[in-house]
Amino acid sequence: MRLSKSFNRSLWVFHFNSGSCNGCDIEIVCTLTPRYDPERFGIKLVGSPRHADVLLVTGPVVHDMADRLRRVYDQMPDPKVVISVGTCSQSGGVFFDSYNLDGPVNDIIPVDVHVPGCAPRPEAIIDAVVKGIAKLERLEEGGKK
């Protein structure tokens, strides 16, 4: 796998918590520790969606966060990839019939890669980011034609 010229420097990831229990967030932090060290491959967590290539979303989307999630998604430059982390972000998990959920992430914004599990292991999160890189490559090649 080889990234296009626009991604040669690094792949920047923005993390968005849409109402999770923090289990997935803890695993994301664990992924960033020196044991896995994704920064050596240029994968870096950034503080602004305007600089990000990948949107990492955790948790079911609670009512108050739905508009914020749409705005964050719209602020990201194209091409972009959305990765939903955890069972709650895919189906609502144990909160699926809660009165204040607007739905899983896929009901609010398009999702490219799902990471199943409650909470998923760091290896699964890194695998999803690699799949996201492949998706970005396909989007970049499609944009050149």
Describe the structure.
The protein has 145 residues and is α/β, with parallel strands linked by helices. It has helices at residues 23-31, 63-75, 87-91, 105-108, 122-144, and strands spanning 11-17, 43-45, 54-58, 61-62, 81-85, 101-103, 113-115. Helices cover 37% and strands 19% of the residues. Strands 2-1-3-5-7 form a five-stranded parallel β-sheet. It has a two-stranded antiparallel ribbon with strand order 4-6. The longest helix is centred in the C-terminal third of the chain and has 23 residues, at 122-144. The chain is globular. The mean pLDDT is 86.
Q: Report the biggest beta sheet as strand number plus sense, adding barrel if it closes.
A: 5 strands, parallel
Mean pLDDT: 86
- Residues in helices, as a percent range: 25-40%
Strand content: 15-25%
Our count of helices gives 5
Contiguous low-pLDDT stretches (5 residues minimum) are none
Computed over alpha carbons, the radius of gyration is: 15 Å
Label the overall shape: globular
Strand order of the largest sheet: 2-1-3-5-7
Classification by helices and strands: alpha/beta
The helix-strand sequence is EHEEEHEHEHEH
Strands, total number:
7
* Distance between the amino and carboxyl termini: 20 Å
